[in-house]
Amino acid sequence: MNNFHSNEILETVKMVADQNFDVRTITIGIDLHDCINSDINVLNQNIYNKITTVGKDLVATAKYLSAKYGVPIVNQRISVTPIAQIAAATHADSYVSVAQTLDKAAKAIGVSFIGGFSALVQKGMSPSDEVLIHSIPEAMKTTDIVCSSINIGSTRAGINMDAVKLAGETIKRTAEITPEGFGCAKIVVFCNAVEDNPFMAGAFHGSGEADAVINVGVSGPGVVKAALENSDATTLTEVAEVVKKTAFKITRVGELIGREASKMLNIPFGILDLSLAPTPAVGDSVARILEEMGLSVCGTHGTTAALALLNDAVKKGGMMASSAVGGLSGAFIPVSEDEGMIAAAEAGVLTLDKLEAMTAVCSVGLDMIAVPGNTPAHTISGIIADEAAIGMINSKTTAVRIIPVTGKTVGDSVEFGGLLGYAPVMPVKEGSCEVFVNRGGRIPAPVQSMKN
To answer: If you average pLDDT over residues 46-70, what whole number do you get?
Structure first.
């Protein structure tokens, strides 16, 4: 992997200097099963000790590699085994103290975020799962860098509508007790969650993973847009080729960083997640790539097709460059984190309906969407159910990160700061799904689940 040609190095330097290229994150996944104890205080101490031991050199390693290769490594993160599994033996009625321990441990080693305050409830909820989900609002209120996720459905299991209802209520409660609903920016509700995702808020360390593993997330919307601007591509076939070749270059750099980090930390290299993850910075937008393909504004007719082309070409380029492409890999469309999407939403062209259609062909789903503070919990649950249905039927990961902003309505905006950007408050549908959501039960697994 170290046999880079001089022209590749020069291209990388240009990508960093002019096109916002970065390694978005090096994430260490840590298994916490050996921390389990029936005493929650002992459990917390075990968790703190393991995270601070395994992750102690992550930040220093990232700084060294960033300086060595001249590539920004924006975030260093930790993901852990879903806490609903790890804390079950305590029989505690709240896991807020565990979230606070995660926060304390992550801060002690200097990482940006820690994920895994999570429950996997696609087929049913254990008592521990319910305790964790009920703990989420207070956990988000009393921690700074802890991220939470709930997997409420899968192609194999169907959609657990009891969990969907509870997730909607949990998000609503979190919005009410955190400033401008900010706690909701750290909660994501999945269908078909993956076990090796290095990106927040949805990262957790899956049960099929090693004791510790390095997963790298690479991002480069600006690089892809610049490549298209500077190419002589005319047909969409040629556009796809440009994207594919660019994704190849980005992936090569990410794998180099990941394997070097693996050697230095003596932790196995897991996967490279090649996701075009935007930031609020001008020139680092997925929406602007779609517009470069020929759309006047992201969200107009043709947007879903353009995004499908982009997502597929990114995956193909990544697969050619590395045998370890995993995670979510593709294109993210978080509204508040993409200046082009913010502009399209403010113009009224990019709507919730269009975003839902776009999620059928991209990496995740309805991401960083701000909605009016008076949106009822059952409406949030309905939005989650719709998104989960797309994931379940299409055998793909979909997710919802939605923020009801207390005191705000359509036409207002909310500032989150940093990589989370700001978001216009978007309208939700008239009418009610309350009766549907309150029926509970499970939407059965689709025929696609019968693969054996």
So the answer is: 95
